[in-house]
Amino acid sequence: MTNEIERFPVLRVTEEGISDIEEMTAREFPLTITLDNQELVTLLCSPTNLKYLAIGFLFSEGLLKSKEEIKKIIADEGKGVVWVETKEDKGVDRELVFKRFITSGCGRGASFYSAADAQSQAKIESQIKISPEEVFALVKEFQHRSQVYKATHGVHSAALCDTKSILFFSDDIGRHNAIDKIFGECILNDIPTEERIIITSGRISSEMLLKVAKRSIPIIISIAAPTNLGVRLAADLGITLIGSVRGRKMNVYSNDWRIRG
Amino acid sequence: MTNEIERFPVLRVTEEGISDIEEMTAREFPLTITLDNQELVTLLCSPTNLKYLAIGFLFSEGLLKSKEEIKKIIADEGKGVVWVETKEDKGVDRELVFKRFITSGCGRGASFYSAADAQSQAKIESQIKISPEEVFALVKEFQHRSQVYKATHGVHSAALCDTKSILFFSDDIGRHNAIDKIFGECILNDIPTEERIIITSGRISSEMLLKVAKRSIPIIISIAAPTNLGVRLAADLGITLIGSVRGRKMNVYSNDWRIRG
Hints:
By secondary structure, chain A is α/β, with parallel strands linked by helices. The first copy, chain A, is built from 8 helices and 12 strands.
């Protein structure tokens, strides 16, 4: 965790008075991702699991489709670069890549892009079900899990679960990055996501929903609220969207037939 | 507000049982910004104040420097486009623009970019001061202000203030957009920001800090926590960064000489 935080002297002001304390903040780390010698993007992220983040990002953006395409991955934390080489040089059209990235990101996205992606996205057919008790138990575990959040209140978290427990957990200053890190890990280690559940601390926008749909995940749970396009896409793509989970209350926005009992 | 929300039927699950209710969600709206006939970017935003958002964005990204450069602004909400024309066709280098945008956005930014911008950013010398009482009063007003947040829990808010009251208020599904809308309004209406205060509901990252520094704002207040680069830049650029304001508690991360009493 030491790598992910930085301490600062802070003036703490409360009703009891003013004191000099030390506070921990989440570190921002610039990571440049290079695909077949083409510099694609620089993400601001938390400095962990850089390889997973790069691979998750490339899959989420549709620039890689299968693990078999990957020839080599080199991560250099000192330089803040991950180089990914594919077997056949992708020779990605620079303009096209830019076009995609511009329309991507948190609150900086586009549903032109989303709409196109959504149309090519197969409907998710998984018959998995989950009970409210299971949702509440998973979310409780999720909310107590992040040491970095407890220290800094400056990161988002994401988790891949089955109905009983958290399988993979990640945090990052970006809510998209936190999920991409989990997906990158699953892709590189051949871990299936089809019958699994994603939990996120962040709001569920159209981009978030599409990212999860690409990994064929049938249930997405958020502590926060969804946007209207998040709900519409979840409904259309056969995904059960559970939002605004607080204590023992939750909203099911779409495909509620997956709620058991 | 009706324009900014969409209602959905929702299955509400609590300890008391299951009920069919209706919930409001924040609308995502794709806005394309065109500068001198060049399509620059599509932002996902809340569908209000599109002109202000476009202008705030272009200034935040450094593509416009003064209001006098602007010849014409046409906003077409139906098409989701704002066209901005300048007196001298900017002929912005497409590659350069892309390079900037790629490294921008929420949790998708870069401190290469930030570092370059920070170096060219003049230190803020304003001698304005604020008392803890004034901070607590402003934040209290701020937190009760957003009708859309109360309805949806799906938007960020931003406000421009003096030490006594909120002057301009904005919400948007993106924390960057909420601030850009305020800055756009100030720029188009010749409202100075130099001796003013920004409040945001979002975390303060390096990009957020730089956006505020560009408008020469001496004090930034956040309900949420800053990142390490947010704190470092605020310290370097002479900005007083107040974060984690909850009830009657706050942290002053930098330039605490502006705290009175």
